[in-house]
Design goal:
mainly alpha, 2 domains
Length: 138
C-alpha cells in the first residue's frame, strides 16, 4: 500500500517525536539521578527492547529512521571542516593516525569473523544435538 505524502509526513513526524521523546525521558532521568552514562546509548537499548517485545510496532519508527539515515552524511560535515581547520596540527601525526585507523579496522574485522564463526559452530552443534535426540526417539 502506497502512503500519501501527508500520511508519510505524519509518520516521519510521529516517529521523530517518539525517538526524541525517548531520548529526552532517559536524559532527564539520568540528570535527576546524577548518572554519568550516555543517555543516548541507553535510549537506543530501550528502543531495541521496545521493538523486540513488540511494545512499539516497527512501522511507528521505520519512516523516521529512514529519513534520518537519508541525511546521515550531513552529520559528518562538521568533522571534515574541523579536520581542514586543524590540518597543520594533524600533519605531523598522520602516520600514527593512519596506523591507528588500519589497526582498529583489522581488529574489528577479526573480532567479527571470530564471533560469526563461534556462533555458526554453536548453531550447528545445537542442530546436531537435536538430530541425535530425534534419532533416539525413533
Amino acid at each position: 500500500m502506497k502512503l500519501s505524502y501527508k500520511n508519510k509526513f505524519l509518520r516521519v513526524c510521529g516517529g521523530l517525536a517518539l525517538l526524541v521523546g525517548l531520548y529526552e525521558a532517559v536524559s532527564r532521568a539520568f540528570d535527576l539521578f546524577a548518572i554519568t552514562f550516555p543517555s543516548s546509548l541507553v535510549a537506543m537499548v530501550i528502543l531495541y527492547f521496545l521493538l523486540l517485545f513488540k511494545i512499539i510496532p516497527l512501522w511507528v519508527v521505520e519512516d523516521a529512521c529512514k529519513f534520518i539515515l537519508k541525511f546521515m552524511p550531513l552529520y559528518f560535515v562538521p568533522i571534515l571542516v574541523g579536520i581542514m581547520t586543524y590540518k597543520e596540527l594533524l600533519a605531523g601525526k598522520i602516520c600514527s593516525i593512519l596506523s591507528a585507523l588500519v589497526l582498529s579496522a583489522a581488529i574489528t574485522m577479526l573480532a567479527t569473523a571470530f564471533c560469526v564463526e563461534f556462533l555458526q559452530k554453536r548453531k550447528c552443534g545445537a542442530k546436531e544435538k537435536e538430530d541425535k535426540q530425534s534419532e533416539r526417539i525413533l
